[in-house]
Amino acid sequence: MEKEELKKAIYQLIEQSAGKKKYKQADVIKHFRQQGIPDADTKAAIRELIDAGDLIYTYFGGSYIELGEKRKGA
Amino acid sequence: MTKKYETPLLDELEKGPFPSFVTEMKKAAAKNPMAADELGLLEKSFRDKVTYWKHGGIVGVRGYGGGVIGRYSQLADQFPGVAHFHTVRVNQVAGLFYTSETIKFLCDLWDKYGSGLTNFHGSTGDIILLGTVTENLEPLATILSMNGFDLGGSGSAMRTPSCCVGPARCEWSMIDTLDITYDLTQEFQDELHRPQFPYKFKIKTVGCPVDCNASIARADLSIIGTWKGPIAIDQDKVKDYAKKGMNIQEEIVNMCPGKCITWDGNSLNINNADCLHCMHCITKLAGALKPTPPFGAVILIGAKAPFVIGATLSWVIVPFMEMKPPYQELKDLIRNMWDWWNEYGKNRERIGELIIRRGMREFLEVCGLEPTPEMVREPRNDPFWFWKEEDLEKKPWEEFLK
Predict the structure, then answer these.
(1) What span, in angstroms and rounded, lies between the C-alpha atoms of A36 and A21?
(2) Can you tell me the ipTM of this complex?
(3) What's the DSSP call for residue B282?
(4) Contact flag A71-B59 (C-beta cutoff 8 Å)
(5) Which of A62, A66, A74 sits opposite B134 (nearest CB)?
(6) For a disulfide at A63, which of A52, B156, B216, B232, Cβ 3.0-4.6 Å?
(7) pTM of the model
(8) Homologous superfamily of B162-228+294-367
(9) What CATH architecture is B19-146?
């Protein structure tokens, strides 16, 4: 999977689970590992999404990855 | 500024011989409305015996998953100055050495962007800047970065590594704690700023078994300096101690946990093979006894205070590791344990708890470590000291003040 495609897939995973399930970074990595994506690739893609502000880390008793737009107006 | 709130309960904490955080908060409150409202809120919390803080949430600095702990007051209408009162953790300097200029810079910065209240240092080891609002976080992080500082760790991440003063000021340091801490901080930037673990992971490094940072009780991974050579003895200095009134038999020989010291009134002898490296004799007879090379570190795993099973001390996993830059053996070991923990750890499960759940055997296998008799589970077994009323009536601090 191309990096941009992977980034889109990660974003969609977080977007679709918003309000239902919170993903930790390791959960996302394991999710894409099942699709044959190397852990390092998923990790790098998450990093780019976080740096761009598309996704953010949040803390609710543990650290999770959520949609970046949540932080707007916080 | 006039006094904003009456604080009779907090005023009680200004009495007695010790410095008081209340006094410092009142000073800050005189010029900063956030600090003033914080005083009022704290007094109300004391009166109602309820904390009115919520913490966590979504605030932070772009690209960072840690370093900012969102705090919000439940009584924002009553105390508007602390409606948002976020804590910022700043990666401290290894060994906690600062110039006056640096301290002034941090204080001025916090007067401008925050409440003016700081905590040098928090129990994590970080510089703690207490109380700011969301819109100040990005400019604050930028200014810190431009001046050579970085945010520290928080959340499910590697926390800012910390250490004792080490060889900078201590004659007993057997490893360069400052360099190890700096090196690990640089090596694991990703793990520090991007929370990716089941829960927090703390690394603390100390130069000798005296363990001034209490790493054995406070860190998931404790790195404790140690030695392999025999303890060097200066018999003349030992005799000096005896002449000056030290009861060598009572205070040194009888208190040796390895029962490896003998004293005939003239000469002190140590059976190094039975030495447990507790450092009691070395610290009591400062200058007379000295550890000798080779120097290295004991690596321990798994301490945490509020385990379900109670306070748990670190467990020895490597009895002796050479500690020379670039510390590759240590870094490889850490990465191995993290991989295993990430794979099997439950949410909010510390690595020590995972070891208890799945077994030390499996942990050693994934780390590529052979079991050895030195992997003792509880080198010491009581991390707490409980003071009773009658202890305090004796004013034990007066003895120290002398």
Answers:
(1) 23
(2) 0.92
(3) H
(4) yes
(5) A74
(6) B156
(7) 0.91
(8) Sulfite Reductase Hemoprotein, domain 1 (3.30.413.10)
(9) 2-Layer Sandwich (3.30)
